[in-house]
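Reproducibility note. Readers wishing to regenerate the assembly model reported in the main text can use the exact inputs given here. Chain order matters: entities are listed in the order in which they were concatenated for prediction.
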Amino acid sequence: MTRYALHPQVGLRDEAFGALAYHYGNRKLTFLNDARLVEVVRTAADHEDIETALNAAGVPEQQRPAFLTALRRLADAEILTCE
Amino acid sequence: MRVTDRLSRGLDAPICLTWELTYGCNLACVHCLSSSGRRDPRELTTEECATVIDDLAQMQVFYVNIGGGEPTLRPDFWELLDHAVHRKVGVKFSTNGSRVTRSSAARLAATDYVDVQISIDGADAATNDAIRGPGSFHVATTAMRHLTDAGFGEFKVSVVVTRDNVGQLDDFAALADSFGAQLRLTRLRPSGRGADVWDRLHVTAEQQRDLYTWLLGHPNVLTGDSFFHLSALGEPLPGLNLCGAGRVVCLIDPVGDVYACPFVLHDQFKAGSVRDDGGFASVWRTSPLFLSLREPDSPGACTSCGSYDACRGGCMAAKFFTGLPLDGPDPECVHGHGEAALLAASGSGRPAVGAGHTRSGPVPVAIGRRPV
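Running the prediction on these inputs yields the following structure tokens for the assembly.
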């Protein structure tokens, strides 16, 4: 089971289009272009696993693959930690 | 909507904020954007600076680029740095290196959220010192050695590209490498004292093409999106490729005035002051100047050019200080439209630029250094 959490060195700032994520360690800026994705990123650590987090954010079934891919990319970019 | 379209409408807070802490400087570089030299008695007090930092923290500005003048000349520099870090506002500061001693390098290496950028403008002392003053290359490279020895990690070596140093790009890369640093190249702007030397020092059309090719081959070299006007040569350079002035970028000057970008210190681009009611946040969010900069660009004279989507008409500051209309080509337009416009505009159109805080009298030839 995959569980994500916002990386402790990342700051998240809400914007009209979603949010900006900034990693204070590698100084990279990432754009999150979807409000629900921002919600999932922000709350991922509060849930047992990513499925529960996606449920809580109301992400429809047919969009799950896209969200899971996006989350994996965010983990690769060290925006999220993964366990 | 593309990210660049979103950004061009502006954000709730800047991404890239430059804050020039003081007009005081122990160098007198010929191309200084802010015409620095003497401190200004009206510079923000320590308390006012702390309030600005608190406002930036509140707005979730992730980091601030601190410069000057030479920011480390302010006696409260280290105190303000600590305050910013404490409030989780990251700091990247630009310095000529004169105060980066062995002990301050160790202190910097031990601090998270801090990045250091050391300026040189030549890969050897002769080329550098002609721009930045006698002894300045030695001082800068000594500071780099201190940072490397202290285990700081990947600091930045920052170079303004000129006609005289553009042939040294490989040497700059090798120099940065030798210190475990990252190279950063930026564009020479005709701003501040740069207006006096721009005609003589800005890169030629041929050099621009070589620079573009070199940048494409070195994607890890930082540019602060300086050279987006070169994207009209073909494949876009890495970066956002848009003018961020008032949209994602702005500048706070030493007396607290807020300008659209670091290269337009002129009344026409002044949005307000951090000393106004509502402070910095209010200037950023409500100034009529910034709101107008967030409107869609008009391509103006560039309408019929097929490259407009790539270069977006180039740099507002470069146009303004060379007397070109803001809705026309950049003076360094890669298709030569800027050169043609400059010929037509010759001389009379350039805005008056005063001496600013340039010191009168002789420039010191030696740079004071504290004992290491």
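We highlight two features of this model. The first helix of chain B runs from residue 3 to 8. Chain B touches chain A through 15 residues (CB under 8 Å).
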